[in-house]
Each structure stands twice: as structure tokens, then as C-alpha cells.
User: Which sequence fits this backbone?
């Protein structure tokens, strides 16, 4: 019961954010989970359990949002090019995930989260500041890089945002693009994890218990989308993620007494 409550609380925060932005759920969920693990508050719930859980719920909510926004979302050259770079490396590093030691994964995740948070705080690129032709040129290499942390932690968002943010005219277009992109990527990733035997009965039961929280939080976030100012939201989220990642890293580096 303790683990279900923890995951439900983290899911509420993560999928409200996803409803608002179209992405970032894994960043928020992994931040909270890593802190809980570092301070011994996660019970029997492991980092691997969390990564499998968020992959499954990201795939489900991605399809859910795709259906709800089906009249707005469409395939376009920019997102298709990014998908061509993102998908292969995501598949490759999902395999690396299954071979990695939990201690190493935790350390790497803490560092990545701290850097992602720092980037969110410092980023200055405004919507519409990048010409679409330049964005198309950078789409494949950006996708290749995003697939690395996408495969390891389901967190392709921060690197993807480097391109899709400036290349989108407004938050609405940005969300439409991320919904299309991550719905496809997350569906492939969760299918791959399932084929690798990552979904035990216990993990599926956890997903079933928390799915109502995930669905409601996503709908709340989608309703809040039009009322959220992008810059303050990004900076606030970045500060939380950066500090949490740094604290978790500090805690993980402490010698075991």
C-alpha cells in the first residue's frame, strides 16, 4: 500500500505536467522516485519498477491524448525527421537499460536530471525563434541524441525541447508536435520492454491501481494548458528538477554506514 500511495502522488504531478505540455511526465516522475529511493522512502519499489511503470503509462496517455487531440495533431516533416533519429537510438538504449546495474542507473539518472533542470532554468529560446528550414536540418541529429536518455529513462523530452520549442510558433503547436512524436516512440518502447519480459504481474497490478490517477491528472493538465504561462512554468519546473537531482546525487554518493 505504501508503494501504491507513492506512485499515485508522483503520477498526479507527472501527468498534470504532461497534460499541460504534452511531455515531461518521465522527468517529473523520475525526479520524485529518485528522491524517494535516495532517502529510503520507496519501500520495495525499485528504479527498474519505476522506469517500467512510466514507460507503460506514458504509452497509454500518449495514445489517450492523441485521440483527444486527433483533429489538431498531424504528421509533418519536422516531427517525422526527428522520429527517424529518435526511434533507433531509443530502441538501442532500451536494451542497454536492461543490462545496466541499478546503482549505475541511479547515479546517471541523478546527473541527467540535474542537468535537465539547469537547462530548463537557463533556456532563453522563445517560441518561433528558429526558422523551420534550420529546424528540419537539425531534427535527425537532435532525435539521435534524445533517443539515448529516451531509451535509458524514457526522458527524451528535454533534448527534444531544444529543437521543438524554438521551432514551434506557440505552446499549442509545441504540444501537438510532442503528442504525435512521443505517442509513437513510447508505444514502440513499451512494446519492446514487454517483449523483454519487463512487465511482471506485480508491475502490471501497480499500473492498474494507479491508472485512474494518471487519466484524471492528464485531463486536468490538458484543461490547464491554456492558462499556464510557458516561461514561469518552465523555470519553476527546472528549479525543482535541478535541486532534486542534485540532492539525490549527493545522497547516493554518501558512504553506506
Assistant:
Amino acid at each position: 500500500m505504501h508503494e501504491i500511495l507513492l506512485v499515485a502522488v508522483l503520477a498526479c504531478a507527472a501527468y498534470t505536467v504532461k497534460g499541460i505540455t504534452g511531455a515531461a511526465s518521465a522527468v517529473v516522475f523520475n525526479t520524485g522516485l529518485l528522491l524517494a529511493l535516495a532517502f529510503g522512502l520507496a519501500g520495495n519499489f525499485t528504479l527498474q519498477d519505476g522506469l517500467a511503470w512510466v514507460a507503460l503509462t506514458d504509452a497509454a496517455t500518449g495514445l489517450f491524448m492523441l485521440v483527444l487531440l486527433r483533429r489538431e495533431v498531424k504528421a509533418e516533416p519536422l516531427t517525422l525527421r526527428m522520429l527517424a533519429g529518435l526511434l533507433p537510438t531509443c530502441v538501442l538504449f532500451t536494451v542497454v537499460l536492461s543490462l545496466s546495474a541499478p546503482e549505475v542507473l541511479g547515479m546517471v539518472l541523478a546527473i541527467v536530471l540535474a542537468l535537465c533542470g539547469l537547462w530548463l532554468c537557463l533556456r532563453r529560446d522563445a517560441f518561433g525563434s528558429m526558422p523551420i528550414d534550420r529546424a528540419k536540418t537539425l531534427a535527425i541529429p537532435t532525435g539521435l541524441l534524445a533517443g539515448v536518455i529516451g531509451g535509458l529513462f524514457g526522458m527524451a523530452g528535454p533534448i527534444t525541447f531544444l529543437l521543438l520549442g524554438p521551432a514551434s510558433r506557440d505552446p499549442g503547436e509545441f504540444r501537438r508536435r510532442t503528442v504525435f512524436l512521443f505517442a509513437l516512440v513510447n508505444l514502440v518502447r513499451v512494446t519492446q520492454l514487454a517483449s523483454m519480459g519487463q512487465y511482471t504481474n506485480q508491475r502490471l497490478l501497480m499500473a492498474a491501481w494507479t491508472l485512474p490517477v494518471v487519466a484524471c491528472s492528464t485531463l486536468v493538465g490538458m484543461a490547464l494548458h491554456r492558462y499556464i504561462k510557458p516561461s514561469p512554468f518552465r523555470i519553476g519546473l527546472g528549479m525543482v528538477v535541478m535541486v532534486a537531482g542534485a540532492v539525490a546525487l549527493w545522497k547516493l554518493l554518501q558512504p553506506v554506514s
About this structure: The longest helix spans residues 171-195.
